[in-house]
Amino acid sequence: MRILTACIGHETNTFASTPTTLEDFRRGSPTPEFGGGAAILHHFRGTRTVHGGYIAGAEKHGFNLEPLMHTFATPGGTVPQNAYDSLKGLLLERLKAAGQCDGILLDLHGAMVTEAIEDAEGDLLAAVRAIVGSDVPLIVTLDFHANVTAQMAQHADVIIGFDEYPHTDMFERGMEAVEVLAAMQRGTLRPTLAYHQLPLLTMPPKQCTLIEPMRSLLAKAHAIESERGVINVTLAMGFPFADIRNAGVSVLVTTNDDAELARRKAAAMAEAIWEKREAFHVTLTPVAEVIEYARTQARGLVVLADGSDNPGGGAPCDGTVILREFLEKDVQDAVVAVIADPQAVAAAVAAGVGNTVTLDLGGKTDHRHGAPVRLTAHVKLVSDGTFTLRGAMGGGARACMGRTAVLVVGGVEIVVTERRIQPYDVALLRSVGIEPTQRRLIALKSAVHFRSTYQDLAERIFDADTPGVHRPDFRCYEYRRLRRPVYPLEGT
Question: Within a domain: residue 477?
Fold first, then answer.
């Protein structure tokens, strides 16, 4: 059985000022010039990623897996049209050259926006379907934050979204995609897919499936999945930082040759989400209050989630609001991770480990995340910034921060990197000599993913009241393209 795979992934924050270029996609590819083949298999085998799941599933069933390409750019601003056209053209060229196959597995995000196309994944799926025809099974895995469209549902046989946020089930969803494909090839599954879009936007902190209301909603989805004839239930909670018509929450239900059952279950799941719409309100805590709590009440580690500057949602990752307050209040046993600032890293490297350096740190991308902080710091460490993820989210995969420096000012350690990276895995801090369990207060540029490894380490977690292009506050954004009415922008 010959199965083709590919990934062109991006989560586009249309409110971010910096576009996501073709070079960003090059950095997000494990192979030079978006190469495919055995190098992709070698890179992802044994990892808790979607492609890791594809590979394990293919080996289980004896399928011959042939990756055409894999690239996933760090979330950021709108993708220039020529960059998308280049990647799409390369994939379609390789798809045509590959010839006849028995199935296709596409590892996509579901929230890519280009200069000319709001629904890049829908456009890509339509182009792939036009080449392979209607008889070749096309299974798509999507991120939990996909802004799913009718066009996506039209061209895919089955869409399987992540169940968990943090995304600790990527491997399992990859495996599930292969199982579905295998059942289709055996003739025991004829998938019917229902798509139900809600007039609802939700923000990341309350999309977390470890807490309510998502914990109960996910349990309901799993209960529906256990019913006879139901193959998959996907809750796509959407990416609200994309000003496009179809941003927001949707439900997808796949059944075995029963379109009416799929429609009814999708409607029931959508109604359950809608009934809990008021429970998605996010509470943010001022930085000063968190500092006071850590000083006077905490008996263990306190984590401050700076979701507003989360690079995993397109923010620049060089915001300085929390850092400035930590320094002004002389906070002890504290860490700020990470600030992406290649100029500061270069200055630290030039100064050398054990020496001091004076520089302007952060605040270089725009004026929405705080101004640069002038400081004199001790250079504690310099590294190449490579490490292996150890948690359930992507465990086994290699991560690269670019050259990295740890700067120390008073009681605050600052992890400064060349690249934007979301510090969701404790392995990041440990790779630069910082043991999280021995610190009192850690600020992380992450909205929810950090819970995949910090949830059990932290005594208390706060969502920071900070500015930025990923701030979970609808009052900060002007939507011009979004369909209306949509809750909570209108009290539907």
Answer: no
Positive/negative CA dihedral, 402, 453, 412, 329: positive
Secondary structure (DSSP) of 410-437? TTEEEEEESS-----SHHHHHHTT--GG
Same domain for 269 and 354: no
**Does any domain span residue 491?**
no
pLDDT at 447 (0 to 100): 98
Q: Is the pLDDT of residue 149 over 60?
A: yes
Query: Residue 329: helix, strand or coil by DSSP?
Result: coil
Question: Confidence band (pLDDT; 50, 70, 90) for 492?
Answer: low
| Judgement on whether residues 248 and 100 belong to the same structural domain of the protein | yes
In the block, residue with structure tokens 């960003």: 24
Cβ-based neighbours of 12, under 8 Å, separated by 6 or more: 20, 75, 76, 77, 78, 79, 111, 112, 113, 114, 120, 239, 242, 314
Residues 156, 301 within the same domain: no
Query: Which of 243, 265, 280 represents a domain boundary (last residue)?
Result: 280
CA-to-CA dists, residue 216 to 269, 442, 445, 454, angstroms = 12, 29, 27, 22
d(CA 24, CA 73): 6
| Model confidence pLDDT, tens digit, residues 376-420 | 999 999 999 999 999 999 999 999 999 999 999 999 999 999 999
> Quick one: average pLDDT of 4-23?
98
Three-state DSSP class for residue 326:
helix
CA distance 398 to 43: 9
Helix (H) or strand (E) holding 193: strand 191-197
pTM of the model: 0.96
Exposure on the CB side of residue 473, measured as CA atoms within 13 A: 16
Report whether 21 contacts 475 (CB < 8 A).
Answer: no
Give the Cβ contact number of residue 186 at 10 Å: 9
Judge if 172 and 239 occupy the same domain: yes
| Structural domain contains residue 381 | yes
Contact 429, 282 (CB under 8 A): no
Mean pLDDT of the chain, nearest integer: 98
Instruction: Point out which residues pair with 404 in neighbouring strands.
Output: 383, 417
- What would the pLDDT profile of 419-458 be if each residue is shown by its tens digit? 999 999 999 999 999 999 999 999 999 999 999 999 999 9
What per-residue confidence (pLDDT) applies to 491?
79
pLDDT higher than 60, residue 114: yes
Judge if 169 and 184 occupy the same domain.
yes
Query: Which of 52, 142, 35, 51 has the alpha carbon at shortest distance from 94?
Result: 35
